[in-house]
Batch of 4 targets.
Target 1
Amino acid sequence: MPDLSVASAVEALKKLEATSAAYDHVLGVLSLDASTAAPKGSYPGRSLTTGVMSGLHYQLISDERNGQLYEYLSAHADELDEQTRREVEVGKKNYDKMHRIPMEEYVAFRTLLSEAQAVWEKAKLENDFAAFAPYLEKIVDYNRKFAGYYNPHMAPYDALLNEYEEGMNTATLDAFFAQLRETIVPLLAKIQSAPQPDDSFLRVLCPVEGQRLLSGQIMEVMGLDRNYCGIAETEHPFTTNFNNHDVRITTHYYPEAVASSLFSVIHEGGHAIYELGCDDRYNGTFLYGGVSMGIHESQSRFFENIVGRSREFVENVIFPRVKAIFPAQFASVSPLDFYRAINRVQPSLIRTEADELTYCLHIMVRYEIEKQLIDGSLAVADVPGKWNALYREYLGVDVPDDAHGCLQDVHWAGGSIGYFPSYALGSAYGPQFLHEMEKDLGDIAPDLRAGDLTRIKGWLRENIHRHASFYKPGQLFERVCGKFDARYYTDYLTKKYTALYLE
Amino acid sequence: MPDLSVASAVEALKKLEATSAAYDHVLGVLSLDASTAAPKGSYPGRSLTTGVMSGLHYQLISDERNGQLYEYLSAHADELDEQTRREVEVGKKNYDKMHRIPMEEYVAFRTLLSEAQAVWEKAKLENDFAAFAPYLEKIVDYNRKFAGYYNPHMAPYDALLNEYEEGMNTATLDAFFAQLRETIVPLLAKIQSAPQPDDSFLRVLCPVEGQRLLSGQIMEVMGLDRNYCGIAETEHPFTTNFNNHDVRITTHYYPEAVASSLFSVIHEGGHAIYELGCDDRYNGTFLYGGVSMGIHESQSRFFENIVGRSREFVENVIFPRVKAIFPAQFASVSPLDFYRAINRVQPSLIRTEADELTYCLHIMVRYEIEKQLIDGSLAVADVPGKWNALYREYLGVDVPDDAHGCLQDVHWAGGSIGYFPSYALGSAYGPQFLHEMEKDLGDIAPDLRAGDLTRIKGWLRENIHRHASFYKPGQLFERVCGKFDARYYTDYLTKKYTALYLE
């Protein structure tokens, strides 16, 4: 590219990034529409459009000329500002990856996913794993194949893990999960022989209208500006974002499980706070948005658990609001009763409803199955059996059917294998962030008690959110915390649940 | 293109059409999201994406190579099936048009509209025409300029009319509107000196939850399959469609105006029936979807008025459902009271709330203003004054403020000038379609009384809907009805309102 100047190359890069961001936006809106508003039978037409748009996006990113552009810009890296330098690095990585994926495979995979989503929804509703199995088989095959394109030098599952948490691998996770089990399993045994709090009042009827009101109030406490953050209703709650001024959270209301949507909203709200806190400068560039699934989950689970399930916040912020909206339902419940019920430990079937202590055991089940699906030692047909056996082994529960078993999560239908470990990592990052936060801010308990999250959000924004994807996840974490150490997490769990059950 | 075979040229055409349809789909979803779900402050990011996507769509359609493709295919027209031949014709027309519009202008216009929508919403809410005026000025300028690109041989306003109703022009409309006025104005005068029915019960509180239920029931009567037709809530009701298996209607609920949403749903439901009735073969081609705004409005207004406001349907289908949902509100109302109230003639301020008789007078106001804006004889700053004067002249009402005057409609903010006359044309096509329908089916009164729209929908589908955009609007109309004659409409109005008021 002898006729290129640095200025014109940078201009070409920025245009490429803006175009790519527009494709992300429309693919995101199609998917949001599918989950929140689209009539059930509309998916074939949307699949076609998703296929066309994904193909065009693929062509854009993998265009040969981009290879030359990145080469030229890399050669002139010292003439670029540091943001552009990092944009080149991220763009080049995506280019190399996409360039290795044949377009037909890429488009076929996107189109498959668009169908798989609808098939999974129906299969879950009808408890029909056999209907979903052929799709899961194809999704596993694609993932195995794509792993080789993502990183031909890594073991396939490691390559997939790196899509969600750059730098992560099976060796690290095996050790991490072993460490968690060493703490959780004996702690859980002790808890299970201790007296259990009553949580029956969490299952009384709380009409959806009131729950919607509660969502609004909690979003207000969290400082989620409704001008830039919408809320919609879906089967499976998630957060999606189009830029740092357009974030959508979703929730699902169960009339007889008021805590379910409540903590979904706080969890998704944590994701939204991260996205809304990214610096404007990254909008429309490759550095836009949260940097990894692990860091993202660290934020959502920070708000859900460290903030949302803390004694201070539950007793002083959540409970008064719940009681004001549903006075009859909670007339004879004290703040402490409510706190204990919210944190009741109960090995159970559904990950998204799990308590904070047993949550990671749910992740381990999925981690083991994913590893074996990808290395070929487990056939898709054997997933339900394996799932049920692991739930028995890790959580001591019997899975009654696949709707409450291996069909419960959307992730595999969405094409994501290697994503689940991020939830456990995110859970573990949180307490280490808290440790650093309290070094700077002192005890945050008064903030939680007052329902004033300003300082907490400010610290997270300053140290994490505003950087969007400028730093790699490991790099970002180490800038803030130094070396990752799961003991912050295990100590946090031990302290919290000892106080709740064993003192 | 000497190396082209007819087969490969047709393949290239079909791919172009599928890609274009995908852009239409995503631009439509962006716009639907904007009106139904997006947080208010999110429009700048959406404007950027709309700009990028419109630019790519423009490039796709106006690509020089398409010109060669159409030339080649036109030269081999006798080797094409009749559908492909028509696709070539429509594609070529769009190509010629788009090709004349400079890309920067096209993208700037789309981006402007994305902003203008948000500005208009706020201006209407705050009754602040001055805030919207700069946008309207630009929109008028663009329309005037684009008219020359659309058709350099026509007067600008005629060229704009042709975008919505191919073959229409000012001369025809002037005569048409004059003919309407000759009937409506004296009839209205007689009605206004006759006794007026009580319609106060239409303004009692009917909670929105019940109104939502009513929408669902009416959609069921209309045979709108919820599997393929969604309903959402917006400020200004509209229908949008992505293919013949994915149509969305919208409505707006006013707690103290139950008839407002009710007839919106029937009106938009009529649009939806048209789109859902298009043959599958046209999906993803240039012939997809209803052929013109006039024909579209003929369908929506057929259902809204000829079906929905008929005595048979109101008394036997609508009223029992309204009364079942709101028993206390309508305890002392008879079916005939309700029918008369629904059809009460009352010159008023708001087009979408207008009765069937005075409706076209609202259109004439807009028609006059549009003509003058485009020929330059009216400045944007003078629109409110002109609007108010015409409302006084045509409808005899005083406009209290611009929110209830020239800011009431979304169309100009959406970039559409020349669209409004379609409403009047559609209203006039309907009774002529009815005349032909009853030649084939006999009296449809029993169908209306039974709430069984099967035969009516079947006839419309057979004669109109299934053809999508295969025939030009005038051609389609003439195939069904022969020559257009507004007397079917004026006779229909005279008969209906004489029976209601003067017998």
Note: The mean pLDDT of chain B is 96.
Target 2
Amino acid sequence: MMNIAAWLMFDGSRYHGWQVQQFDATVQGTLEAALSRLCGHPITAHGCGRTDAGVHAERYCFNFRTSSSIPPDRLPYAANSLLPPDIAIKKAIYAPEDFDANLSCLKKEYTYRIYNSRIRDPFYTGRAYFYPHRLDISSMRVAAAHFVGTHDFAAVRSVGTETKTTIRTVHWLEIAEKEPFIEFKVCADGFLYNMARAIIGTLLYVSEGKIAPDDIPQLLDFKDRRQTGPTAPPDGLYMTRIWYNGEVGAMMES
Amino acid sequence: MMNIAAWLMFDGSRYHGWQVQQFDATVQGTLEAALSRLCGHPITAHGCGRTDAGVHAERYCFNFRTSSSIPPDRLPYAANSLLPPDIAIKKAIYAPEDFDANLSCLKKEYTYRIYNSRIRDPFYTGRAYFYPHRLDISSMRVAAAHFVGTHDFAAVRSVGTETKTTIRTVHWLEIAEKEPFIEFKVCADGFLYNMARAIIGTLLYVSEGKIAPDDIPQLLDFKDRRQTGPTAPPDGLYMTRIWYNGEVGAMMES
């Protein structure tokens, strides 16, 4: 069995997230169906993380084991012809036997896109969060800086998934103005359930004057999800970068 | 009754074109339902032209008459809250009593977007034509120049709609490389049914070596739709500019 690692892109609008569910269409389920057909035996796709319903990925990594002899460089064309048009494999390579898209991951970056204009743009429906009010970028930047570093992020995670610890390291949380978009980029060694969206929702509360920028450290200390901002809608969230050692890392940064 | 002119944007993926049909969702039908509700009386929206199923518009103009007292500058916000997220009114103003979005139009520009890469991009599904083969831009540019000017365009129109004459003036037909996109911009005083897409399909035939670039004048002379290229898919087609005299013209260029 060869272990193949691949770069996946998907528009998550139509899917109930990554993970296979019994009744709803998911990215994993759709991908496994196409790969199983292509390889001629049942395939299990190991994703780099769960994504929520409606969340997108420009760079998502998964690996799978197969006894088929399809060369990885031909996999994208062959698989894409069997995948729906909102999911595509961009690249694939042979990975070391012990490579696991989730366990081998060093860090990840998510980008959250807000369409900040008084009139919505029909071409960004489902692909950016339409927010027609003025944003206080300076206050959000002051607040954002408090999230950077190693902290207990229990205050910005939704319960529902088990985790050994709620301590994570946020490497950066940057806000860029790309009129009419505002882009938030957050990179961490790992993300708790809904953590990226809860951080964005909290920053929007800061912009709206509902939370003071310098209250963030205290709110993190309280570890109380009810005192931070709401979970921002999934529409604006994209997985945009992921880091690994070795050749898989080089592929995902190419 | 006041005559109001408005700038409309829509992602046409879900619609069977502009014009009201008995059973299928159309942009006109959806728009008229929202405006009728807003204005409190039945509204007829006069569009600047029919668009086909799946065709998009960044700048589309329509006008309608209403006895309601809603100020045009408030119309976009009020109407957009009643419209689905893939249709939005961007601006609106009072127009002269005799203004008609179709009859008053001086010229229009369509943009056709090809996503020219070996791997498709899930985020452009339905919004660009995915064409994974090499394009011969130079040959297409030679062929494109032959379409510019006043000609009988019967060779690149589908039958099915009545028209007094098939003579039109193409002001420009330009090809821009914006990797991984190729953008065609075609401006004319008017477009016959499927004319923009038939021109693009013919240019693709030129790129594929099926038509010689300098055969275009002769093919136009033959006036035989079967000898030109196929009608390119609607996904890549956007109405991008439209010209009028006076204040409506200024609004649509703003």
Note: DSSP finds six helices and ten strands in chain A.
Target 3
Amino acid sequence: MAKFNVSTPSGFVEFTPTQERERQRWIGVIKSVFERHGFPQIDTPLVERAENFTAKGGNPKEIYVLDRLLREDAIDQDKDQRAIRFDHTVPLALYVARHFNDLTFPFRRSAIGPVMRGERAQKGRFRQFDQCDIDVIGNGSLSLRNDAQMVAIIVELFEELMPDQKFVVKINNRKILTGLFDQLGITNDEWKNVLGVVDDLEKIGHEKVQKGLEELGLSKEVSEKILAFTEIAGTNDEILKKAAELLGEPAGELQEVVKTLREMNIDESLFQVDLSIARGLDYYTGTVYETNLIGYEGLGSVCSGGRYDDLANVFTNKDLPGVGISIGLTRLLWQLFDAEIIKPTQASSSDVIVLTRGEEYMKDALEIGALIRKEGIAVENYLENKKTDKQIDHARKKGIPIGVIVGKDIMVENFERKEQKEASKESVVQAIKSIS
Amino acid sequence: MAKFNVSTPSGFVEFTPTQERERQRWIGVIKSVFERHGFPQIDTPLVERAENFTAKGGNPKEIYVLDRLLREDAIDQDKDQRAIRFDHTVPLALYVARHFNDLTFPFRRSAIGPVMRGERAQKGRFRQFDQCDIDVIGNGSLSLRNDAQMVAIIVELFEELMPDQKFVVKINNRKILTGLFDQLGITNDEWKNVLGVVDDLEKIGHEKVQKGLEELGLSKEVSEKILAFTEIAGTNDEILKKAAELLGEPAGELQEVVKTLREMNIDESLFQVDLSIARGLDYYTGTVYETNLIGYEGLGSVCSGGRYDDLANVFTNKDLPGVGISIGLTRLLWQLFDAEIIKPTQASSSDVIVLTRGEEYMKDALEIGALIRKEGIAVENYLENKKTDKQIDHARKKGIPIGVIVGKDIMVENFERKEQKEASKESVVQAIKSIS
């Protein structure tokens, strides 16, 4: 039938209308929670100079650069390579460097939008995906209260995104792990590899981590000490106490963050000190976060982040400490749809649809649609000349919950509950509210 | 100072925090008006197969394709070229072709997001820019009422986006112009060029258009007839009447659209039949729209669109008529900022900021912040250990209108009006509302 291969390119995903409706709800909630806490969305270009990405550790094999389908040298006056962003952090560093004098510090912003990585395409991994980030950047210093605020925001996010789903935010501090490594005589050069292995504890289990550590050249004794430490269990206070006993000062920041979380009245069941959390990225220097959905730990962390000492060191000579979190939205939603943890049913953004019992009632129907819309209710008019039954089919297929059927009378119907109510033009909005 | 060239690449624009705040407001209003009328946002990938873009008339010199900064053939298993979308219409056609069986027709969707064109960079023209589109696609047929609905939506958009700005939606129908050309013996091959010249009437004036038409090989007499026709003036009814007298049937659709607009109670001053509107794109086949800001006609049309016979003819063998409109958001906002028609002042998304008279009040301040946030008010806590004056400076620089200063007492202050009000924890939300 089709003359062209119309399928999406490998690694580029799009959702069906019902899935996309759920995705839009998530984006709306995420944006709203971020902004409610003082993190306005600031969009930056998808494209930057390639050299600025590689300077901040981008993998050249995965960085997409732009070319033109048909080259015409006159247009391409600047020969530098242009690349597509692979995260929101490097663009943030560039934004801060570019607009330093226009910004008020601590500078807070959110970024919600696509990034691209030319990874090998595989199930559930995409080459274009949405990241939803917030970061707060200090000029010279940044209070640890910001580290606690991130936890408060993760909590509010998942309470709104998945109200029936239990979750826990796991917190640690990289200084604790590196303090331990210092004690054990592990050098700075070895840290990164050791952290990488420790980070997989939940995924691969105790024995494989021990084996992994020994493969890095650590003695059995040191490996066991690391594992014993990261597996310290108990209440938050018990874990913090043991860490402080063993390490002293390096545990101080984490204690401070937990204290602030309590001042914020965050429910103690929602955050958990976990000395094994390391986060792979090597630019984290203090607090680190992961978030697990209880019962679905296999999905991995659904919201992660941490504190970093210096956002933009290669782009400015300012000292810019920051802390941030990120949700990998596309991957997470894809997993939730795939495992049927979320099963969306509504394809339409409309709460109400206005139908008619014939063309002669269209003028009334348009007027009623406008009346309802004025009340801030999302309402669409069915505009085609079709039988009423066909119109009702259309409404059901789109999953619109309420119909207003305009004929000699005005009937308001809740399609799901099969409840009906007669109304007048004056009472139609109230009838909709009472039947919703 | 900087070790790298951190500036945005030529043709890729980003806004300052205050400008970006206004941009985000526009996106929010546009999304909300679209959804209120039954057009849910559906995002599609930025990237498609290049051949699908050229099949729908994309200019290969302007289409960006993806490459990798460092090529590794193992990853690039599929050798077909991947290109970045240059509009939302081709992705819509592909989406409809891909999900045909999942869609309910008429299918409505909005698209708000970036597209890229590798044009020569020049002032106010960008290589990445946001387009905000809605389209409704029928399966086999689509009522002309949808054409009227587009006008109603443009009206609602600009009433919310620029409440103090007058504007007018200009409507025409391509069948009227092509009907006239038939009468004058202008062949189908000549239509496109003639429409292109006529389209510039407002921009370049009567004489230059006449010259342009004669340069296309039309006689003086024919050129004058075309101009006389497109310059027919009067009320909407007078223009429609003359068009109907001269052409008969071709004016019928436009009459029908105007009739529906009146049924929708759209104020007659907000839409204007204008027989010179052609729209450059050759895929429009019926109704066409342009929108002008009164007093700023030089900006060109700020929202345009039209009816097309067949959305996806190269991708499916279905008959899919549609009608849609589009706002070129980045260019429009850039123009409005540049000409200082809009002068944004607030960099923050917060309506309220909570400050302290010392660290000892931080716990109270955090609690008060949470209380205010629970009421749905966007509020940020100032978390650093700084003097109160510095905190107030911070709030002012970000343009946050209301401050809550927590010490022994709780003071609510409107920074702009320099009004203060004492409050308790219990009354702080009400005090904010009364002082806003």
Note: Chain A touches chain B through 118 residues (CB under 8 Å).
Target 4
Amino acid sequence: MTEFGFIDSIVRLFGNMPTNGFEGIGDDCAVLPIGGGESLVFTADLVVEDIHFLRRAASAYEVGRKSLAVNLSDVAAMGVRPIATILSVALPEDAAEEWAGEFMRGYHSMSEEYGVALIGGDTTRSAGGITINVTAIGRGPSGQIKRRSAGQVGDIIFVGDFLGASGAGLRDILQGHTDTPQAVIHRNPTPQIHEGAWLGARSEVHAMMDISDGIASDLRHILDTSHVGAEVDIDRIPVAAGATLKDAACGGEDYKLLFSVAADHAGQLAEDFLLRFHHPIHPIGRITASASLQWLRNAAPIKLDWKGFTHY
Amino acid sequence: MTEFGFIDSIVRLFGNMPTNGFEGIGDDCAVLPIGGGESLVFTADLVVEDIHFLRRAASAYEVGRKSLAVNLSDVAAMGVRPIATILSVALPEDAAEEWAGEFMRGYHSMSEEYGVALIGGDTTRSAGGITINVTAIGRGPSGQIKRRSAGQVGDIIFVGDFLGASGAGLRDILQGHTDTPQAVIHRNPTPQIHEGAWLGARSEVHAMMDISDGIASDLRHILDTSHVGAEVDIDRIPVAAGATLKDAACGGEDYKLLFSVAADHAGQLAEDFLLRFHHPIHPIGRITASASLQWLRNAAPIKLDWKGFTHY
């Protein structure tokens, strides 16, 4: 069973259950309106030794920061600010002391950077490797929350930063080159936390999500749930230094934002963003009424068999 | 480093951080007042193969139910109703199909029993054993939330049901007797979910928590945080069938409620509880102004070196 197959079976199994005020599964986070025009959002991610990281290729400090980063990125992709996390760690004997301490210092350093509280969790022994689960909670105005399903025909599609460095870095690590600049970026992603909440406050931003499996895969989630298609100009995909175009389109774990913006306001938004964050956002295409994702090169359609990155 | 040592170091590390509206660590759950006189509560527990369960001694269905039960018990201990969970599962190849399906059926069956939504989570491969993390969310009137620190001198101390069956069952399982009634109870705890919310609504109930490590250990958390002592009459500890008195006082994983009640209202509360739930609650002692936990036999002090159950 693939990850998506398992999740589909869970969605079916729980289809008849009360939602208790939560909105349905399908976005980066679940949403709970709490009154007063506000909502909370919730997400969780597992980080497993020998699946998501190798102890010999990543420091405990880096694993601590990245475990938090991937969750904060999901909250930011909803357009709101992360406020707290709940952390669970299963530790084998040989990681219970020094590794655990360094891990917590990394986790704390990123929590501090974004003002995120640690409100609870669990620690236990592990008979195998290290397993980490982070549950992140965000909070913001309900009207600010961005969903994958909100893409509209004519919207300009943007990505929030250069892409592909993380995928290139993973390739380096698997080839034994753990010290390349891209390998360092793979282990130390910088999610767009402040950018997410800022974009959330702009009503011209329609659909939003974070890029964890590459735009070739992730953009399809926006298209499918919004019942639209898209044209993406591959010459306009911003490729990070040291990465290939395919890394940028299909590499995993960039943790940058992907969002669609009303065409009339796209230019102004891009200007305002640059002024606020001192780096540009990048238009890569537009949403169409077709049902498919069409790649373009020099404005002409081309066929590409690009798929996203799969962990599982 | 012990579990408590690691948690203490985390509390120190995060001591200077913003709380973002959450109340401090130290109860079964973290609490977030959300306005309108309501609060949410949050808790998380890891369930790890070969630490918390053996695949040969517990069915996947049972592990699914118990993973949820231990978290719902923490929510109930705060005096409010569980509304949702977030589930993360790391699965080795040989558990990805049949085991995972049975696990989810068990998880679903208990979710359904208590009307608890599943709002998100993560699934991934594991290079070692099975690891499960459940984050549970409860919701209720802020004034109804029960804290460990609310014990008052003179309160009667109650337990919500007979104790010790789970501890006796664990001993049976470790001796290879996986089919005794107590072993079945160990794998299938029945947390006091409805009881917790009902007791939450009673203002004469002061401190409350759930018994996961035995009253000899757990009662001390109430005493320490309430800055009080207690006398406990060991003849009044309700010992479950097949368990010893020591199992009942020191055995782990009973997941029954432990709470203190204003003495003037204790009799009426016990009557009302019996009428509502058709089984009694059990007074075992009272809170004193001393700083220690004093065991009594036939109303006379006795010295006992009883400690709680330790997983880690």
Note: Residues 66 and 188 of chain A are 6 Å apart (CA to CA).
